């Protein structure tokens, strides 16, 4: 299974005015050995956090790029970066991630494991939710999840596909089945959910 680099940062005013400022970085990645495809989009929740998902054949392919002189500025993404936080992780998802990232809207969940909790504790809760999601939203199944390869971060990502954020909320709001499973997620982690309309660049 390929590895997904998930990077996020506060978008610059220049990017928000014209997303094409991202294009030089995308053009650079197209010619990097081992980079299969790239997706980007802004979180609907705050309208300013930019997500870049790059699909790599292996983690080593991206690590080779990271050793190039001038990395990361050499990529050409600097004009899209505003003031704020920047995060990056690499994830090898257990399930097929393609239906979720190719959907019109991608729900991205980031789980930070609590002290004393394991990925198994978290996966149990995600599996419980996934079984119902697959039933009500079969066209974008499966729910894909995996642990960040940066083990010290103790972080897990999940990807779900929907027709839209509104459709996600319509299908799940008030469904009693989800409540105990969400509580299991809260017991095991602190988590954040965003919705991104990802554009596939190549």
Proportion of helical residues: 25-40%
Quote the distance from N terminus to C terminus.
18 Å
Shape: globular
Instruction: Give the low-pLDDT segments.
Output: none
Largest sheet properties: 5 strands, antiparallel
Taken together, the total number of domains comes to 2
Count of individual helical segments: 7
Strand-residue proportion:
25-35%
Name the structural class.
alpha+beta
Please tell me the overall pLDDT: 97
Q: How is the largest sheet built, in terms of strand order?
A: 4-1-3-2-9
CATH class of the largest domain: Alpha Beta
Q: What is the CATH topology classification name of the largest domain?
A: Alpha-Beta Plaits
Helix/strand order, N-terminal first: EHHEEHEHEHEEHHEE
Protein name: ABM domain-containing protein
Word description of this protein:
The protein is an alpha+beta fold. It has 2 domains: 89 residues, Alpha-Beta Plaits; 103 residues, Alpha-Beta Plaits (2-Layer Sandwich), CATH 3.30.70. Helices cover 31% and strands 33% of the residues. It contains 7 helices and 9 strands. A 5-stranded antiparallel beta sheet has the order 4-1-3-2-9. A 4-stranded antiparallel beta sheet has the order 6-7-5-8. α5 packs antiparallel against α7. The radius of gyration is 17 Å and the shape is globular. The relative contact order is 0.21. This is ABM domain-containing protein.
């Amino acid at each position: 299974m390929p590895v997904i680099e998930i990077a996020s940062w506060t978008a610059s005013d220049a990017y928000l005015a014209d997303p094409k400022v991202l294009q030089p970085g995308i053009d650079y990645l197209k010619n990097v050995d081992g980079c299969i495809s790239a997706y980007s989009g802004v979180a609907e929740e705050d309208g300013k956090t930019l997500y870049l998902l790059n699909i790599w054949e292996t983690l080593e392919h991206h690590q080779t790029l990271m050793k190039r002189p001038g990395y990361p500025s050499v990529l050409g993404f600097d004009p899209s970066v505003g003031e704020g936080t920047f995060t990056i992780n690499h994830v090898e998802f257990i399930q097929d991630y393609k239906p979720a990232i190719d959907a019109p809207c991608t729900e991205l969940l980031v789980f930070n494991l609590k002290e004393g909790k394991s990925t198994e504790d978290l996966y149990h809760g995600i599996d419980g939710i996934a079984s119902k999601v697959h039933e009500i939203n079969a066209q974008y199944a499966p729910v894909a999840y995996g642990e960040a390869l940066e083990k010290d971060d103790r972080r897990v990502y999940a990807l779900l596909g929907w027709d839209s954020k509104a459709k996600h909320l319509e299908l799940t709001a008030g469904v009693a089945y989800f409540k105990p499973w969400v509580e299991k997620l809260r017991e095991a982690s602190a988590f954040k959910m965003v919705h991104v309309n990802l554009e596939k660049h190549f």
